[in-house]
UniProtKB/TrEMBL annotation:
<dbReference type="InterPro" id="IPR008927">
    <property type="entry name" value="6-PGluconate_DH-like_C_sf"/>
</dbReference>
<keyword id="KW-0520">NAD</keyword>
<keyword id="KW-0560">Oxidoreductase</keyword>
<feature type="domain" description="Mannitol dehydrogenase N-terminal">
    <location>
        <begin position="34"/>
        <end position="283"/>
    </location>
</feature>
<dbReference type="InterPro" id="IPR013131">
    <property type="entry name" value="Mannitol_DH_N"/>
</dbReference>
<dbReference type="Pfam" id="PF01232">
    <property type="entry name" value="Mannitol_dh"/>
</dbReference>
<dbReference type="InterPro" id="IPR013328">
    <property type="entry name" value="6PGD_dom2"/>
</dbReference>
<protein>
    <submittedName>
        <fullName>Mannitol dehydrogenase domain protein</fullName>
    </submittedName>
</protein>
<dbReference type="InterPro" id="IPR036291">
    <property type="entry name" value="NAD(P)-bd_dom_sf"/>
</dbReference>
<dbReference type="GO" id="GO:0046029">
    <property type="term" value="F:mannitol dehydrogenase activity"/>
</dbReference>
<dbReference type="Pfam" id="PF08125">
    <property type="entry name" value="Mannitol_dh_C"/>
</dbReference>
<dbReference type="InterPro" id="IPR050988">
    <property type="entry name" value="Mannitol_DH/Oxidoreductase"/>
</dbReference>
<feature type="domain" description="Mannitol dehydrogenase C-terminal">
    <location>
        <begin position="292"/>
        <end position="480"/>
    </location>
</feature>
<dbReference type="InterPro" id="IPR013118">
    <property type="entry name" value="Mannitol_DH_C"/>
</dbReference>
<dbReference type="InterPro" id="IPR000669">
    <property type="entry name" value="Mannitol_DH"/>
</dbReference>
<comment type="similarity">
    <text>Belongs to the mannitol dehydrogenase family. UxuB subfamily.</text>
</comment>
Length: 494
């Protein structure tokens, strides 16, 4: 069947597009943008915005819509794309069964903070704002990974303490908006982290309070007494949007969309039910409200996210581009499966309603999905935040138990080898990381010896680098990467 002529996505085009994709069947003009979301990337648009779009199809939920906020220079492109489409965009779910498209309408507004910081601050400080949610990446919480403490020396934090009314980072915007609410006699909005952090709400609370203490002890005390920071666990594999995805949406569905999202069918959201200012009825559309998120988030981060780290660096060293290619490689698939089974699963507590063996098999199937083409370069971004959060906690627990950790040490060594910026064939690999300059310098100077990288206390702390069981295994693996190559090293660690 030939593709229909492409129509530019807009509110006016929705009736035409109804035969090509599912469209919003609710009156967007009646919905209030009472949730401000900072960090409108592909994941948010494939996950939280989809849940709310589902909910808005049920009458009586018009009090809940999103206002998106972009803080970073590259968010200007997202602003231009979304504002030009009145916040509408296409989500395509891809699986072996085929492709399904829908247009999401829950994003009602978009503000680009560098162009008008005051508009963002007033949006958050207004009485209508009840929740501010975050997808600001693991590195956006200003955690010293070595100590777990708030990194008050980060340049963004230093700037926002000195210039509280012209903030640069998410925490600066949160705190200034909260202070305005305090001065106006308003309750704080709920701060809802949706990032891949264990205890993500607790981390947001601890670090925002540390920031507030530095700025104004009275603000700290008010927020500590009245603020809410629910924990949550989020899951949906969402690759970065490419021109191929835009072409797919245009040619397959006849929709001209400046920034669509391609994702997998699976999605999951577990939320701690702590919202004193009210919340959407997410449980009506499949989210799980609970008193304790920890077992779910620990399972997800230690199995899914750690496995992503295990597959991506070795995959890139071997010249692969996509996650499904690593699962087609018997060696990498075996490494990931055995790391999950032997080194991670024994550390997990029972998870209510989840069979962990079935969960692990589902992960392998999701990683193997060839239709979404999840980029290894995306998975490997910000390793300085992801390795300490997803891999090293299991390493630390196994060291305490005297348990196995060889494949996790291999993963760290593969990351170290990747940081040289060249794969085994000598092809350049871009290193996208806030610490890229430091990491690459130490990786190149250290070569086959890991000590310069392991001595980064903000990543490994004093505890891990003092453990010969871990350090020696990383050293053996890294030397093998240099002496024997990636394939032979992989085979030695199965």
């Amino acid at each position: 069947m030939p593709a229909p002529d492409a129509v530019k996505l807009s509110p006016e085009a929705l009736p035409t597009l109804a035969e090509r994709a599912r469209i919003p069947a609710y009156e967007r003009g009646a919905v209030s943008a009472s949730i401000v979301h900072i960090g409108v990337g592909g994941f948010f648009r494939a996950h939280q915005a989809v849940y709310l779009d589902d909910l808005l199809h049920t009458p009586g939920n018009e009090a809940w819509g999103y206002c998106g906020v972009g803080l970073l220079p590259h968010d200007e492109r997202m602003r231009d794309a979304l504002v030009g489409q009145s916040g509408l965009y296409t989500v395509v779910e891809r699986s072996a069964a085929g492709d399904a498209a829908r247009v999401i309408g829950s994003l009602l507004e978009y503000l680009y903070a560098p162009a008008d910081p005051e508009a963002v601050l007033e949006k958050m400080a207004a009485p209508a704002c009840r929740i501010v949610s975050l997808t600001i990446t693991e590195g956006g919480y200003y955690v010293n990974e070595g100590t777990g403490a708030f990194n008050e020396r980060h340049p963004d934090i230093v700037h926002d303490l000195a210039h509280p009314h012209q903030p640069r980072c998410s925490f600066g915007y949160l705190l200034e908006a909260l202070d305005r609410r305090r001065q106006r006699g308003l309750a704080p909005f709920t701060v809802m982290s949706c990032d891949n952090l264990q205890h993500n709400g607790d981390v947001a609370r601890r670090n925002l309070l540390a920031f507030a203490q530095r700025r104004d002890p009275a603000l700290h005390d008010w927020l500590a007494e009245n603020g809410a920071f629910p924990n949550s666990m989020v899951d949906r594999i969402t690759p970065a949007t490419t021109d191929e995805h835009r072409a797919l949406v245009r040619e397959r569905f006849g929709i001209e969309d400046a920034w669509p999202v391609v994702t997998e069918p699976f999605l999951q959201w577990v939320i701690e039910d702590t919202f004193p200012g009210g919340r959407p009825a997410w449980e009506q559309v499949g989210a799980q409200m609970t008193d304790d998120v920890l077992p779910y988030e620990k399972m997800k981060m230690r199995l899914l996210n750690a496995s992503h780290q295990a597959m991506c660096y070795i995959g890139m060293l071997l010249g692969m581009q996509y996650a499904h290619e690593t699962m087609e490689d018997e060696g990498i698939r075996t490494l990931v499966q055995r790391m999950m089974d032997e080194e991670v699963t024994p550390l997990l507590s029972p998870v209510p309603g989840v069979d962990v063996e079935v969960y692990k098999q589902t992960l392998i199937e999701r990683f193997s999905n060839p239709t979404i083409c999840d980029q290894l370069s995306r998975i490997g971004t910000e390793g300085s935040a992801r390795i300490p959060k997803f891999v090293l906690p299991s390493v630390a627990e196994q060291l305490e138990r005297g348990g196995p950790l060889r494949r996790m040490a291999f993963t760290v060594a593969a990351w170290f080898r990747y940081l040289t910026g060249e794969d085994d064939a000598g092809k350049a690999m871009p290193i996208i990381d806030p610490m890229a300059e430091t990491l690459q310098d130490r990786a190149k100077r250290g070569g086959r010896e890991p000590d310069l990288l392991l001595s980064l206390d903000e990543l490994f702390g004093e505890r891990l680098k003092a453990k010969p069981e871990f350090v020696d295994e990383v050293r053996r693996a890294l030397r093998s990467f240099y002496d024997q190559g990636a394939r032979a090293t992989l085979e030695a660690y199965l």
